[in-house]
Design brief:
- The protein has a single domain (10-280), classed as UDP-N-acetylmuramoyl-L-alanine:D-glutamate ligase.
- It is 34% helix and 26% strand.
- It has helices spanning 24-35, 62-73, 89-98, 124-134, 145-152, 162-173, 215-228, 233-249; strands at residues 10-18, 38-50, 53-59, 78-83, 106-109, 140-141, 176-179, 188-195, 198-205, 211-213, 259-260, 275-280.
- A 10-stranded mixed beta sheet has the order 3-2-1-4-5-6-7-8-9-12, sandwiched between helices.
- It is globular.
């Protein structure tokens, strides 16, 4: 009797390691598993961190990052790739080179450039290289407002100019852009999605919970998984936002700082309950 084959979509995360398991590649792999895709990983940096913050960081060598990429891409049928924290220009170059033969498929880049406390995480060379060599090759980038401001050279991005920021980034880079608004204080969270089909304002209620650690990583990973499963871009984003919302609402209460998400709860999300309004053309 022939053996039945099982080949789920394969997603690759290229990201840093979070020792507490809440963010980075650990959050990405939990998201992939919850959403029914197979997750592979390339580690770019290792952190010692917990819910209170980051205590230490060590970047891996560009050669080792490149070797990981070659190992995965030469053997696994990677359908979609999510890129997170890269740490510096040498690693960015290694990732760009390692992905060169893979271009043209679903690449989601979360440009990890600014910490939650407002500190710049990349030097000027790395920021320029990211903007020139990696971001324009993505299908979607998912900057938060602070990162959008850095990419545009603006003092800040807030409620009043978030739509303009998303549209300018999409035009400048030639890619779809999702500028997230989770760090604000308004009663609703408003994200701005700009694609070739137009501009959409995506909103949901703001949760009064401290479980936000890894939300940005999880969002980008959930979009990546949805694209690998065949969703169009807007549908993938709407589903991913609903997934993150439920995972945040169900987050565990341990830790003294910003708590993690509970990714299994995200599978109960109802995307139709989340508002997605088309505003105009991007």
């Amino acid at each position: 009797m022939p053996t039945e084959t099982f080949t789920p979509p394969v997603c690759l995360t290229i990201a840093g390691s979070d020792s507490s398991g809440g963010a980075g590649l650990q959050a990405d792999l939990k998201t992939f598993e919850a959403l029914g895709v197979y997750g592979a990983s390339v580690v770019t940096l290792i952190t010692a961190q917990n819910t209170r913050g980051v205590q230490a960081v060590e970047l891996l060598s560009p050669a080792l990052v490149g070797a990981q990429l070659h190992s995965v891409l030469s053997d696994l049928p990677v359908r979609a790739v999510k890129v997170g924290a890269l740490g510096g220009a040498p690693v960015i170059r290694a990732v760009v080179e390692g992905l060169r033969a893979w271009w043209g498929q679903d690449l989601v880049v979360d440009p990890v450039m600014v910490s939650k406390h407002g500190s710049r995480l990349l030097d000027a060379e790395a920021e320029a290289l990211l903007s020139k060599e990696l971001l324009p090759r993505a299908r979607l980038i998912t900057p938060n407002r602070s990162e959008a401001a850095v990419l545009l050279g603006w003092p800040e991005v807030d409620d009043d100019n978030a739509q303009e920021a998303a549209e300018k980034l999409a035009s400048r880079l030639g890619v779809a852009v999702l500028v997230t608004g989770g760090a604000g204080r308004e009663p609703e969270v408003a994200d701005w999605l700009v694609t070739s089909e137009g501009t959409h304002r995506l909103i949901h209620e703001r949760l009064d919970r401290r479980n936000r650690h890894g939300a940005g990583c999880t969002l980008a990973a959930a979009i990546t998984a949805a694209l690998a499963l065949g969703d169009d871009l807007k549908t993938a984003v709407v589903k991913a936002r609903a997934f993150v919302f439920e995972a945040m609402r169900a987050g565990p209460t341990f830790g003294d700082g910003e708590g993690p998400l509970w990714h299994r709860a995200g599978t109960t999300a109802d995307p139709s309950a989340h508002d997605a309004r088309r505003i105009g053309h991007g």
